[in-house]
Amino acid sequence: MPTHAEKRVLRYTPEELFDLVADVQRYPEFLPWCVGARVLSRTETELVADLTIGFKIFRETFRSHVVLERPHQVHVRYLNGPFRYLNNHWRFTAVDGGTEVDFFVDFEFRSRILQAAIGVVFNEAVRLMVRAFERRAMLLYGRRPPGVPTPAPAPS
């Protein structure tokens, strides 16, 4: 059903962007329609979290298993909630001048009413969400003008 894929280059390191996306419990602070987040379990390579989304009169909570492949990928596998399915991934590839971010989301609500409501605004909603992550990176890591190299990764 609704699918969105987007690639863009941001002037941050893969590690910085990975950390931002993996910090699920902070999503309600900056992500539109995310009104709650609860991490149920977490290790270095995975987490299970409940996210609550609110849109107009709708409020739904869903659980996901998130695989963290530092610093290059975040894969989200839907466990339960209001969707028939949800597929989501983030990929971070270092490129000249920053990181190419490859974002993909595909889902379908169980409820036809919810599906119809989100279908009308889906593309704009996802664009707003991706921009919210970009604004969050600016807030956390500062603005980086063109030509300013991103910080080198910390030694392992």
TrEMBL record:
Gene3D superfamilies: 3.30.530.20. Keywords: Ubiquinone. GO terms for biological process: cellular respiration. It comes from the Bacteria. Residues 12-134 form the Coenzyme Q-binding protein COQ10 START domain. The keyword Transmembrane helix does not apply. The keyword Ribosomal protein does not apply. GO terms for molecular function: ubiquinone binding. InterPro entries: COQ10-like, COQ10_START, START-like_dom_sf. Belongs to the ribosome association toxin RatA family. This is Ubiquinone-binding protein. It comes from Caldovatus sediminis.
